Structures are given as structure tokens and as C-alpha cells.
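Risk register update: the risk of archive-format incompatibility is retired. Evidence:
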Amino acid sequence: MTAAMTIRATVLMALMPDAGYGEVMSALLGDLVLVPWQRPYQVPGGKVLSTWRTALGPAPLAGRASEESSGLGAASRTGHFGSAGPDRRSRPP
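Archived output:
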């Protein structure tokens, strides 16, 4: 497990609110589990994810959330939403 995987799993938990830790980890890792690794790979269980989330604390995602919300504010002021969607003002009538 890594800090990056923990952060991705935490974000994915918001997109899969009814899923348990094991389901989230399985969805995150997908077909990587099927790759013939040198040693057999096993999806980390809920205890592993919980321990990593506790160790990381809220700081990594708290900073990211403020960055994202400030970006959304700028997007709504300019009318440009990047890859989230086209600028509706530039559409032909």
C-alpha cells in the first residue's frame, strides 16, 4: 500500500458510498490483480486501508479539496470549465 493508493481509494469511496473497503480496493486495482506478478498478489483488506487512512490523516485531502473548490469558483466566474464540459455561451443557438 502507498499514500497515493490510499488517497485514490479515499476519493473512490465518495463515488461508491455503498461499497465496503474491500469492494473499493477491488475496483481501484481492477485487473492489476490478474497480472502474473513474481509473487501472488492479494488485494489489501479493509484493515490495511483503514490503517493507512488513519496514518495519513486528513491533511493530504484537505489541501486538495481547497484547491479544487477554488478552481471551481474561478471556472464559474469565467464560464470555462475545462474538461468538465463546454462553455455553454459558445454554443450556436
